[in-house]
Fold this protein.
Amino acid sequence: MLGQIDIFCLCDKQINEKKIVNDNISHFPFCAYYFTDSILTTMAEHKDDIFQSQTKRKGLSKYVSLTLLAGIERAIWAFCELNIADLMAQYQKPVTALELSQFGENNWNAKFLYRLLRVIADADIINEIDTGSNVPSMNSCQEETVRFQLTDDGLLLTSDHFSKARDLIRASLHPTWTQVMSHFPSLIKSNSSSYDCWEQAFGCSVFEYMTKEENKEFASAFNNSMVAYSHHVVAPLVAAIDFTRFSKLVDTAGGLGTLLSSILEANPNIHGILFDLAHVIESAKTMNLNEFQRKYIEPNRYEFVAGNMFDPETIPIADAYILKHVLHDWNDEKSIEILKSIRSANKALMQRNVTVFIAEMVIFSNGNENWEAHAVDLAVLTAGSKERTLSEYISILKKSGYEFNQLYKTNTEISVIEATTMTEICT
């Protein structure tokens, strides 16, 4: 349904004079269809219920329910690591745990696998099939008789599903995070803004960790998890903003191009540039069916450019840039450096306006809206960064030479800040 977003109480009078636009995004249905993108719109209609069902409980039941939920999460992670969704899809009919345990080259423990599948069925990722016999015989074993099949949600966990939901689970619940978060209490006690949990756990930054050969599998899953997050927010984000004002748009640190391809799909007048580090661009270009091809975007409407967002010489010239889940990875100083690099890249003989869109989990004054941002804030804090309030973003924009224009709220946890700058003149 359509609605007017709240006008936020900001301490800076100048901020209050800026526009905060209507939230004109209709609520997308939460439904699962394997052959369409509709599952990827949003969980916005259900997220508060999911959250409150656990954290809003009172007394001991709050903590019991949270620990039990963690057990289900670990089971889903194991289901994804074992790639069981692929096996079930290949089997093409309801299958028992025994049959799965011996499928292909498998030689798994069927009894243990059955116990895992029971939990996955509780999560509605697979269905337990009624074989017509509710009373098993004395000699029957459930791993031999009970059959399971994937639900629509379960199909998302196949390795070739474009949503990358499997890697979202694998990356988010990976044991790497257990090692990183084990240093979190020390971070709190350190009283130092430079404490880095990744440095403490692995002797390097998160970005250095991702580039090491031995961490290649985790890095791939992590990058694909970012694709999954993009699918989750892309439809309402694209609908919220009038991109027809621009002729050339750069998706800065745009990954595989999920967001940019969706913007181009909805705005046929725009030429898009996917800009990221060389190894990321190589991955985007060499996909069997890249994000632009999947959406039937004409090849002359997009290009891949490798570079470094800290180096203005490598940043493509354009009239608009979008940075989604980029600045929250960096402290204020580095974020300012990124924004200044974009501005410097557009030096010209004549001044002109350049627009940037910052898509992040903005922390608002109403605490009830912020639980996702608060949770992700702790994850990025392990690497020395943070989620920010609107005032904090406006501050770094001002220090970078930009003027805040307006805020777009979507019906997901993502908000978009629009700002403009006047380019420098070449001397």
About this structure: The longest helix spans residues 216-240. The CA atoms of residues 199 and 205 lie 5 Å apart.
